[in-house]
Amino acid sequence: MMDAFTHLDMSASDPIADFQSRMDSAGIDRALAVETWSGDNFTCLERFLDSSASQFRVALCFRPEQHLPSQRLLDHQAVIGLRVKTADLRHLGDTATLMESSGKWLVSHAENGIGPLTKALVGLAADHPRLRIYVPHLAWPRRDAVNDQDWQPAIAELSRVPGLVIGVSAIAYFSVQPYPHADVGWFASQVTAAFSADSIVAASDYPLFEKDLYAPYMALARDWIGELLAARSSKLEAACFSDSI
Questions:
Q1: CA dihedral in degrees (180, 182, 188, 190; nearest 10)?
Q2: In the chain, how many domains are there?
Q3: Which domain covers residue 144, as residue numbers?
Q4: Which of 48, 104, 218, 231 is the most buried (most CB within 10 A)?
Q5: CATH number of the domain that residue 40 is part of
Q6: pTM assigned to the model
Q7: Has residue 130 got a pLDDT over 90?
Q8: What span, in angstroms and rounded, lies between the C-alpha atoms of 240 and 33?
Q9: Rounded CA gap, 97 and 92, in Å?
């Protein structure tokens, strides 16, 4: 099974070994490692690119003002996509066309809330109908611990975007209750009702929660997705680890 969105614990003496031990404890055999906006884990992600670590794929941050990532990095087979802020979607330009033709994923970020992100993604998908889009973190159902009123309409709209995948992740971030975060379970139920089995993935957002609960968090995400997760491999997992991109 895949952890479809994780960072690395840069406070660990060996962040990669630390995360591999977490994966082993949870029965996770593959992972998508995502660059942080601070870039503190970039050197570790480079190790994935320079090795034969077939259990990892990488998503790098799109920084248009710095012309990053480089075309060389974007072309790397282990780099499956770009993490892009809502405000930067309009700066993708030819990069969106290249991502569409190469099968790379757009990993979205809702720094201004899910409403603005959804509007931008729907427009982008209309211009690039074969672009693969990944919306992690339950599509950000809460902002500052308050339910986002744009969330339910956004879920309905995003579910109609061809090729879009949504992640059940960052559970603790949206909760105002302790583990097992029952207050977030309703959001997961709405996601599983709106999206098909191959359009939902489970992920952790490690290490941004109680780190020793990695295995329980992955189990919680799996349980919330339930039979949908067991029905088939997701489009994201198949593209990361099966397709040649």
A1: 170
A2: 1
A3: 2-241
A4: 218
A5: 3.20.20.140
A6: 0.95
A7: yes
A8: 11
A9: 9
Beta carbons within 8 Å of 126's beta carbon, 6+ residues apart: none
Please confirm whether the linkage preceding 15 is cis (ω < 30° from 0). Answer: no
Name every residue whose Cβ is closer than 8 Å to that of residue 158 and which is 6 or more positions away in sequence. 118, 121, 122, 135, 139, 164, 166
Task: Report the pLDDT value the prediction gives residue 242, as an integer from 0 to 100.
Answer: 78
Tokens of 30: 């593959």
- Cβ neighbour number for residue 57 with a 10 Å cutoff: 26
- Residue from 104, 100, 109 nearest 57 by CA: 104
pLDDT at 245: 43
Rounded Cα–Cα distance for residues 123 and 128 (Å): 9
Element containing residue 150 per DSSP (H, E) = none
What is the crossing angle of helices 151-158 and 114-127, to 10°? 20
Return all residues near 117 (Cβ < 8 A) that are at least 6 apart.
Answer: 86, 108, 109, 110, 135, 140, 154
Gap between the Cα atoms of 230 and 235, Å rounded: 13
